[in-house]
Amino acid sequence: MRALTARRVWLVAALLAGLLVLMGVISLGLGAVPIPPRELGACLAGAVHAGAGSVSADCRVIVLELRLPRVLLAALVGAALSVAGAGFQALLRNPLADPYVLGISSGAALGAILSLLAGPPGTLLTGGAAFLGALATVAGVYLLGQRNGHLDTPTLLLAGVITASFLSAIIMFLMTALPGRELRGLAFWLMGDLSSPLPLSLRWLYVAALLTMAALYTTAADLNLLLAGEQEALHLGVNVRRVKLVVYLSASLLTALAVSVSGAIGYVGLLVPHAIRLLFGSDYRLLLPASALGGAVAVVFADTLARTVAAPTELPVGAMTAVVGAPLFIYLLRRHLQ
Amino acid sequence: MKPAATPAAVHPAPPRALPRLGVQGISYAYGTSPQQFVLQPLSFEVARDQVLALVGPNGSGKSTLLRLLAGTLEPLAGKILLDGIELKQLDTRTRAQRIAVVQQENPLLFSLGVLEFVLQGRHPHGRGLRFPDREDLKLALQALDQAGAGRLARRWMHELSGGEKQRVVLARALAQRPVLLLLDEPTLHLDLAGQIDLLRRLRQLATSSQTTVVLATHDLNLAAEFADLVLVLDRGRTAGLGPPAEVLTEALLQQVFGVPLRVEQRPEGTLRIFLEVNRA
What we know:
Chain A is mainly α. Helices cover 75% and strands 1% of the residues of chain A. A two-stranded antiparallel ribbon of chain A has the order 1-2. By secondary structure, chain B is an alpha/beta fold. Chain B has helices at 7-10, 62-70, 92-98, 114-119, 134-146, 162-175, 192-209, 220-226, 244-247, 250-257, and strands at residues 21-29, 37-46, 51-55, 77-82, 85-86, 99-102, 180-184, 212-216, 229-234, 237-242, 261-265, 271-275. In chain B, strand 4 (77-82) and strand 5 (85-86) form a beta hairpin. Helices cover 32% and strands 24% of the residues of chain B. Chain B is built from 10 helices and 12 strands. In chain B, helix 5 (134-146) packs across helix 6. Chains A and B meet through helix 9 and helix 10 of A and helix 3, strand 6 and helix 4 of B.
């Protein structure tokens, strides 16, 4: 057992970043109209060297205008959800915490939908409302999940699942208030969907998500100790109150960012940090960046499958992640409760 | 950000006369009415090279007193001075550089390597992301040796027996390089040889490294043998305070613990305490 070094963090991050680029390029070539590797290479090289104006129409429309933003969005959503999951796991001291399972995604979705009733989409309003929805849900689940003053796994998960179901019911009611033709789109979006046009610009989403992850990363060393319990963390010099606040805000914001552009994509925040822990250990200084990159890979992969398995029909990406995630969740839960 | 602390800066040598730990009339209550006092006003001093044992029945206030000394609980009244500085003036990080706490066992959510676990003790001494440097590694391995767990460095926490885990938890506390070490029932998971070994190590720590030790224990014989001072607590009240031979008398122990006990003075001056109970 070696101690973690910054070098190891960089190595793992580089490895996963390489995997993400590879996955992204593969995803760009696949779809209703496949682009052969050689043509894709020429397209990407041409776009990088001479700008989007110089490449073929196929390349420009299919690869650069349709697929590239979608791959970038999938990567962002995967990273945000995975890091949020890892954050909530430390905050709630529960390895099964996940923004979707605990109803936090539903809270963010409810916030986003309420804002759609109030004003046009595509404003900061959507993201802000989703953020408030996530914050309120975390607080609610945190309070409901306690038994005798302690967070306890079955109580917490039950509180989350019931909260999610309650919030979904409210969303159903609200949906009837929206004009008919938007309904199908909204229902699809709730299943976790990356095909809708973006309400916010991709660039600003990336800036917001990266800043939030950076803020969370400053507490990485403290999170390792928080996981051992608040008393112990305090004894080891962690400013528990400040660290919990940073995690609470940043994990909620990341969930809100992801949900406000893609709906509720489930289980990513559970699956990815678990896989990373198995592969590389549970130290948050490595876990957070590795989960961000691993989550990006996972959702780009899931979205590629969603676009291609039933092409030209698209499946919602949330259905893909749930098909894998739900059984695994049951397995982990049973193991955890033993 | 504070400047990187050198060992000398972390533990400035106090004047000789100053006790390491000065407790001045502290009390504590969980409720607000005086009937709910968990700890009646209490004062004592512990010198740098001393071991203080807290004894008393369950619910007598031992754990509460330890939490007050750790600074995670603030006394209702009174002051706690560590090397002359009032405890509540220290921030969390500085406190963790000076006081280490060994608690009763806390399960880990994810398994860790033993060395990683002990390195957590270096947390209050580092900054930012605190990747351990060579010095941290050296101190962590040294702490493992001091706790008698040197050969466990490459193992995983989940593979350890209760006794081994207890040593590793002690090693993490020692890696903090504290001036005050607080332990709650440290011998709980240890077999007889392990209990004696641990107490010898704590004794050694106080005598030769001037790390003051305060421990709560149910084992009166170990307290009598290894502690310089014993504080007997009875429902939050100080029933006795002083060297073991003066405090641990038959009358006092029977009154506090409510069971018949016999105390024998050995020729070499040490005490042996026996329970005098039969089946009926």
